[in-house]
Design goal:
Largest sheet: 3 strands, mixed
Order of helices and strands: HHHHHHHHEEHHHHEH
CATH architecture: Orthogonal Bundle
Structural class: mainly alpha
CATH superfamily: P1 Nuclease
Number of strands: 3
Radius of gyration: 18 Å
Oligomer: single chain
Helix content: 55-70%
Strand order of the largest sheet: 2-1-3
CATH class: Mainly Alpha
Shape: globular
């Protein structure tokens, strides 16, 4: 069955190129979640996606929130729900301070979770909620999506990665992952089989505030240690396992969330 799932989830010839956390890592998170979740959850997701003409497979639907961002005015209120910014000098997330003026990723997760759980909502609203939730859980596990407000989560921190001009946010979005040279589906399979039952137990959580603080702690403790701004193998070696762990955690937690919301469907 697992080998069949791998075949069914292989990339299609017309799939988008794998460039960013919004594509590679999001698909890795969602395919790990797909393998983790219960059969009932997979069945209901498949039924929901039958009405979606844009995405035939769950891991592709996890890219939708980026696809509509800034391109479909119906979802303009969700444009900021991909991240949360915290001020320097703090050590914990505060909903009123960090999301008081901006609809943040924590609120996006809570709202989409509520809509998905409500079976009185329309099928299209619940489908949107599924795609938002699956994407936002991936987003909040990328540390720079819970970064400093003053440089827009690392977007304004310029650096050189392996000789190429970029910024800190992009480095964590795709620069370090790209350096592995791995195809995303093979990479996801490798990470999935590394997950232990002890890790599943340790990672069990339904609190997006906690996930935010985990990401922010990486920002505070390590992500900005870029020396003179020219980084390469040493920075990669120090952080690639962290990125892999966040992808695995996101996949396990997304599966837990969807099993809770859909499993009895």
């Amino acid at each position: 069955m697992f080998l069949l799932a791998l075949l069914l989830l292989s990339p299609t010839p017309n799939a988008k190129p794998d460039l960013v956390w919004g594509w590679d890592a999001h698909k890795m998170v969602c395919v790990i979640a797909w393998w983790e979740m219960d059969d009932d959850s997979r069945s209901e997701i498949s039924d929901m996606l039958e009405s979606d003409k844009g995405y035939e497979r769950f891991m592709e639907s996890c890219l939708w929130a980026d696809d509509v961002r800034g391109r479909d005015e119906r979802y303009d209120s969700w444009r900021t729900a991909h991240y949360v910014n915290l001020p320097r000098g703090v050590m914990s997330f505060d909903l009123e301070r960090d999301c008081g003026e901006t609809f943040c990723v924590v609120e996006g997760i809570i709202e989409s979770r509520g809509v998905l759980a409500d079976r009185t909502q329309s099928a299209s609203a619940r489908l949107d909620a599924l795609k938002f939730l699956s994407h936002f859980i991936g987003d909040i596990h990328q540390p720079l999506h819970a970064g400093y407000a003053d440089d827009r989560g690392g977007n304004d921190t310029r650096l050189v990665l392996f000789g190429r001009d970029t910024n800190l946010h992009a480095t964590w979005d795709y620069g370090l992952l790209s350096h592995t040279g791995r195809d995303w589906i093979d990479y996801a399979s490798l990470l999935y089989f590394q997950i232990t039952d002890e890790e599943r137990s340790d990672w069990a959580s339904n609190e997006p505030a906690r996930w935010t603080e985990e990401s922010f702690s990486i920002v505070v403790s390590s992500a900005y240690k870029v020396g003179n701004g020219e980084i390469g193998q040493q920075y990669y070696d120090r952080h690639i396992r962290t990125i892999e762990r966040r992808i695995k955690q996101a996949g396990v937690r997304l599966a837990d969330q969807l099993d809770s919301l859909l499993g009895d469907g």
